[in-house]
Amino acid sequence: MLTPDKPYQDGLPLSFAVTPVADGVLPLPASGRGRKHGTSNTEPFDRWFRYPAGFASDYVTSLLAHLELAPGELVVDPFAGSAVTGTAARQAGLSFFGVEAHPVIAELGQLKLQAAPQSTRPFPEVAKDLIAAAESQAHAAESRLDDESDLVKRCFSRPVLARLTSLRDLVKSGAAEEWYLHAKWALLGTLRDVASARVGWPYQRPGSARKPVYTDPLARFLKRATWIYEDVQKVSATPRVPLSVVHGDSRSTDAWSSIPEGTAHGCVSSPPYLNNFDYADATRLELYFWGEISSWAEMCTSVRADMLTATTQQSSVGAAMNARSALQSFGAISRTIEDIVDKLAAERAARRRGKEYDRVVPDYFVAIGQVLQQLAKAMHPGASAIWLVGDSAPYGVYVDTPGIISEIAQAVGFSSEKDIVLRRRGQRWASNTTRHDVDLSERMIVLRRMS
């Protein structure tokens, strides 16, 4: 296991960003770090909606190749996100099954894997009709903007918001015909492009103004609709293999009921990192705009409900206590986690308003263990699982997340094959004098389902 006192893994210094090529290790993207913030804003399918902190598709393609699967074999992803692994699997001629806890992102993931609608009209043609109607209704829509949520109103100028809401209402009314969901996501993908407030990764900051990247929301919507149409047309003629993303909790047996046990030939995934990033809050603008939620409380109950705990905003005293008890089932690694929890509790107590990292850590690792238990049931004996995950150091207390996950995996039916440093992390905050100085990395762990 990597720790600050053991800064080498497979001969690689933890403090140096590398792209290792060793025995059986695939050559990874030349940058050694994947795409900034994960999903690409230019690659087909990735560009539909740039889910914050999503999986980088250049990594996914390489990792799938590393599995060396035969055409049609099944790849699974228990943290499917917007189906980056799924679209890469389709490109490689593989079947795919993914589970995603965020209901709206699960919808996007499944949409990317569906065949194009059987429509007599191309999507860009439908989009142009929507745009013409939205423009004609924009003045009337501007008089109704007071009904929008405060977050939405603060993120756009009134003329821009009037056109966005006109498009939204037209799409919801059925004016997009068979392209309803594609139009929805073309519009949701447009929001951050035309916002006049800082709504980028990872937080929405409606009080902080910015110059919009694009000034015309209708033209940007048409551009995104054209991208989507181009992408679905490219794959419409390819041989079909089973491809799906379901909304659910990958800790639960029910979420995996669509595939028989022991049928997955490989897994490529990137679980949520233990870095206090809130995946639900990161999509708050889109959720409010579309009317999926109308309050923070509703987001917590309807969006976060199936997500594993990876942020202090999800933590609770009761859940942490139950998790500390459940950790014992994973064997000796539970003592390592307990030691981390005790150190974090001490650090929190020493601060006036310390964050509850000591509650998050046990709940997070128990949840990961439960996902691994379900994954072990889904995978064929001898099949490999490749996970991309980073370590962390809240309050300077080092948490070797990849190493701990590997040990938990060994307690539930996997062997640990590799643990490879891919890149250095955390340099974005190097100038923050209050931040810890622990070297962090992103790593690839390779697990194998035991017979």
Describe this structure in words.
With 451 residues, the protein is of the alpha/beta class. 40% of the residues lie in helices and 15% in strands. The chain has 14 helices and 11 strands. It has a 7-stranded mixed β-sheet, with helices on both faces. The longest helix has 22 residues.
Helix content: 25-40%
- On the 0 to 100 scale, the average pLDDT is 87
Overall geometry: globular
The major β-sheet equals: 7 strands, mixed
Distance between the termini: 24 Å
Summarize this entry quickly.
This protein is an alpha/beta fold and 451 residues long. It is 40% helix and 15% strand. A 7-stranded mixed sheet has the order 7-4-3-8-9-11-10, with helices on both faces. Strands 1-2 form a two-stranded antiparallel sheet. The chain has a two-stranded antiparallel sheet with strand order 5-6.
Outline the fold blueprint:
Blueprint: E1 8-9, E2 12-13, H1 57-67, E3 74-77, H2 84-91, E4 95-100, H3 103-113, H4 123-142, H5 150-155, H6 158-172, H7 180-194, E5 197-198, E6 205-209, H8 217-235, E7 243-247, E8 264-269, H9 284-290, H10 296-302, H11 317-326, H12 333-349, H13 357-378, E9 379-390, H14 401-411, E10 414-425, E11 440-449
Parallel strand pairs: 3-4, 3-8, 4-7, 8-9
Antiparallel strand pairs: 1-2, 5-6, 9-11, 10-11
